[in-house]
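stage 2 :: seqdesign
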């Protein structure tokens, strides 16, 4: 029996290199597709992908060719920052909307059995947490709007072409190989390693749902195996933690450094956490790694890698 083959766009990025071993363990042959603009080929090689293809998600022909022979697609490639989207909404739209459309067309043309789209809580905007699938999206940033458009295209391709597309809304992901990320935990770890103040935007009382990348990767694998078209589910820890608390925990692990407050950023929401019950019910998603353990492992990785 021929094993299933999965194409992972943005596969050399932070989530992709942590996902590859999980998919391999589940019996998938793995193919990485990445332009290496942020992710690195050496990380993809270390993740033991079976194949590595260099290419841009905006190159529809190259992406379609990379999908040939694949039974599944995980679409991770994206512009992933709220501040970056505010600074350049056109580029954000190109990468997150047209890139997703290209991935869906490639998946449609090869008749995949499963497609997972990496979204986030950003499409929902400013809400009373926890975020859940029944909420009406009202994005407050171009990033949130572009991810919402991607979700809409997944629904459209499921309805029009039968592409079994599932939308997974990631909370704040952290863990090893996040050195090129600008997200909270990665930024704190890099500054603490350098002995620099931890930059907190606003008063630091804003909350986020921090999920360890290994838990997220298992959730993606479970959703891919489930293969349900039209599925929307939140993947997180289900716990709300302040940015100041995370700063303290990182400082405890990587050396005492002061916190430096900067003005709040446009587009950032005040509170965020996820209701993960739907993912648990649909495909058995169950995060195992506590924030304390996850930060222990993340700090150890930053120390050992010198990132």
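stage 2 :: out
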């Amino acid at each position: 029996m021929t094993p299933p083959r999965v194409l992972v766009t943005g596969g050399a990025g932070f989530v992709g290199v942590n996902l590859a071993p999980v998919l391999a363990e589940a019996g998938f042959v793995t193919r990485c597709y990445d332009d290496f603009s942020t992710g690195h080929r050496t990380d993809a090689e270390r993740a033991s992908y079976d194949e590595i293809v260099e290419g841009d998600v905006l190159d529809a022909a190259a992406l379609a060719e990379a999908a040939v022979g694949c039974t599944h697609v995980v679409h991770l490639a994206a512009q992933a920052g709220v501040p970056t989207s505010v600074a350049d909404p056109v580029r954000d739209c190109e990468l997150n909307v047209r890139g997703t459309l290209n991935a869906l067309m490639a998946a449609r043309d090869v008749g995949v059995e499963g497609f997972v789209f990496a979204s986030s809580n950003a499409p929902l905007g400013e809400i009373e947490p926890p975020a859940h699938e029944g909420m009406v999206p009202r994005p407050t940033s171009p990033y949130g709007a572009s991810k919402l458009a991607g979700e809409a295209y997944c629904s459209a391709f499921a309805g029009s072409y039968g592409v079994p597309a599932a939308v997974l809304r990631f909370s704040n992901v952290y863990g090893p190989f996040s050195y090129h990320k600008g997200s909270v935990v990665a930024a704190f770890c890099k500054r603490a390693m350098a002995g620099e103040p931890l930059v907190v935007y606003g008063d630091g009382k804003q909350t986020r749902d921090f999920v360890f990348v290994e838990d997220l990767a298992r959730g993606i694998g479970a959703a891919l195996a489930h293969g349900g078209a039209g599925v929307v589910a939140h993947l997180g820890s289900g716990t709300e933690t302040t940015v100041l608390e995370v700063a303290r925990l990182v400082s405890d692990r990587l050396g005492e450094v002061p916190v430096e407050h900067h003005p709040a950023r446009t587009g950032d929401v005040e509170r965020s956490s996820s209701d993960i019950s739907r993912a648990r019910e649909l495909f058995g998603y169950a995060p195992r790694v506590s924030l304390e353990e996850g930060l222990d492992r993340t700090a150890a990785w930053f120390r050992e890698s010198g990132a």
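stage 3 :: structure notes
- The chain has eleven helices and 13 strands.
- The mean pLDDT is 95.
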